[in-house]
Amino acid sequence: SMEWLIPNWIVVALGYLLALATSLRVVLQRREPTATLAWILGVLLVPYLGALAYLVFGRRRLDRQVRRRRARATMIEPKLERELGDDSLSAATSRESFPELQPPDENLLSRLSTRIGCRWPTMGNAVELLVDAERAYLSMEEAIESAEKHIHFQFYILQPDGTGARFRDLLTRKAKEGVEVRVLVDGVGSFYAERFMQPLVAAGGEFAEFLPVGRLSRHWHPNLRNHRKLVVVDGKVGFTGGVNIGDEYTGRKKRVGSWRDTHLRIQGPAVRHLQEIFAEDWHFATGRKPDTEHWFESVVPQGDARVHIIASGPDTDTQPIQRIFFSAVNSATERVWLTTPYFVPDQPMLVALETAALRGCDVRLLLPSRSDAPLVLHAGRSYYNELLACGVRIFEYQPGILHAKTMLVDRSWATVGSSNMD
Q1: Is 403 among the residues known to form the active site?
Q2: Is 227 marked active-site?
Q3: Percent of the chain beyond pLDDT 90?
Q4: Could you tell me how far CA 362 lies from the centroid of its own chain?
């Protein structure tokens, strides 16, 4: 009847108005063309569900940028300038106060990394490559055992299993000894960690979750997570790379099998930048302004490695890591060797890899043959034919799960990190 037709038309009209408004917002976000098209088709085909999905999953950036910069300006940089005589954003100050903090050289990639990464590369670092989780865990445990002042422990995944208990108990013991212990995990990646870490809190340690699931707020979004894996001990030793905390990383879980990963142990001026990143994340997660007076040790050269710590995420406008990876591949003259567990490149990166191979570079991709994310694995394989046709060589890792995130360009530049190429 007519009395039912009118409400139906209203529902339909409102649905398409909602779809139109959502589509406009998608376009204004200037996403990748394929992502933009996918969202627009979704909200047009199922307007109400599509708009709801976009509201929950579609936002790319945290409403965190202003808070983060304010925290950094008011809490960290003045302390660094006062305590160390070094404003890390000032080339002149860095050169005069610390010769080991060199400004970017004429290398274009180094210049780009500095301009969009917000931190200077540092000289005078000692870097140890830690192949596989067990070696990384032993090195981290050794550093934690030696801690005298503070331990900062931040991971995307901290599993409530045997490996998690191994670190929880060690951190709890150090907290009982009077060492300041702060543990920061992601609210989704480490969903069950809060109760698991209660012994640490009872011993005087501090625990926080990044955007926890149980506390909805305007800042919370399920797809905006803190994917970092870093440890800083006494401001002198730092760790970062691809390794999370869990039994699967050591190959103990039969359904997963052996797990291949890469991590770094760093000593020297670069550790201060890891400390700075932790301080920013800790302040955001807790809302408390930490007393960082003793967090930043004097800069003491430990080796001859040049290290550049690049922080990236949905709270950055310039997408530093994405742009640096793209530029690194484009700058290659000899080789590009890339290892990544989740290979779903955007169109610019795909073209960069293909053109590098076409101009004669040795381009090799080491990708997993099986994955903890099968959908991503098959999505990545859809690019194989196009890449192979251009001369890119693709290898699939056979012994187990490949989780390392590394890239080597020519003979002078390499990256180890927590960022995947998806």
Answers
A1: yes
A2: yes
A3: 51
A4: 27
Give yes or no: 161 in active site. no
Question: Which two three-digit tokens encode residue 25?
Answer: 């917002």
Each residue of 321-365: pLDDT tens digit? 888 999 999 999 999 999 999 999 989 999 999 999 999 999 999
Q: Could you tell me the strand order of the sheet in which 406-409 lies? A: 393-397, 362-368, 335-339, 406-409, 413-416
How far is Cα of residue 144 from the mean position of the Cα atoms in its chain? 22
Residue with tokens 């926080």: 208
Catalytic residue among 227, 346, 362, 372: 227
Catalytic residue among 174, 229, 236, 263: 229
CA 101 from centre of chain: 24
For the stretch 187-229, pLDDT in tens is: 989 988 999 999 999 999 999 999 887 655 555 566 678 999 9
Which of the residues 86, 186, 234, 247 is marked catalytic? 234
pLDDT exceeds 80 at position 1? no
Is 234 assigned a catalytic role? yes
3-state secondary structure the chain: CHHHHHHHHHHHHHHHHHHHHHHHHHHHCCCCHHHHHHHHHHHHHCHHHHHHHHHHHHCCCCCCHHHHHHHHHHHHHHHHHHHHCCCCCCHHHHHHHCCCCCCCCCCHHHHHHHHHHCCCCEEEEEEEEEECHHHHHHHHHHHHHCCCCEEEEEECCECCCHHHHHHHHHHHHHHHCCCEEEEEEECCCCCCHHHHCHHHHHCCCEEEEECCCCCCCCCCCCCCCCCCCEEEECCCEEEEECCCECHHHHCCCCCCCCEECEEEEEECCHHHHHHHHHHHHHHHHHCCCCCCCCCCCCCCCCCCEEECCCCCCCCCCCCHHHHHHHHHHHHCCCEEEEECCCCCCCHHHHHHHHHHHHCCCEEEEEEECCCCCHHHHHHHHCCHHHHHHCCCEEEEECCCEECCCEEEECCCEEEECCCCCC
